[in-house]
Amino acid sequence: MDAAERERLREKAAFDIFNSIDDDGSGFLEPSELPFLLKTLGREVDELQLEGIMRELDDDGDGEISFEGAFLFIFHSSYD
User: Fold this and answer.
1) Strand partners, 29
2) CA 1, CA 30: separation in Å to the nearest integer?
3) Which of 2, 23, 53, 74 is buried most, with the most CB atoms less than 10 Å from its CB?
């Protein structure tokens, strides 16, 4: 398997996780859905950390997390 194929598989895995959490099918994660993403990833955070993660991932300040933001968090996060 080459690097491009591995990246496609990682993106598909992230997309599947994202869609399983995006309850309303909006294509974005709402603040109320973020704890489910963290739980799926096996991460426990307190309320302050949760707010920080939301601010970090909500790159345009609209209160929603795009798939791109979630993808970066899933595979490149320093929150452990």
Assistant:
1) 65
2) 35
3) 53
Sequence-distant (6+) residues with CB within 8 A of 1 are 9
What pLDDT, on the 0 to 100 scale, is given for residue 76?
Answer: 74
| 8 Å CB contact between 17 and 47 | no
The domain limits of the chain are: 3-18+31-76
- Alpha carbons within 13 A on the beta-carbon side of 35: 5
C-beta of residue 45 within 8 angstroms of C-beta of residue 38: yes
pTM of the model: 0.77
**How many CB atoms are closer than 10 A to CB 65?**
25
Q: 3-18+31-76, which class in CATH?
A: mainly alpha
The CA distance from 40 to 54, in Å, is 16
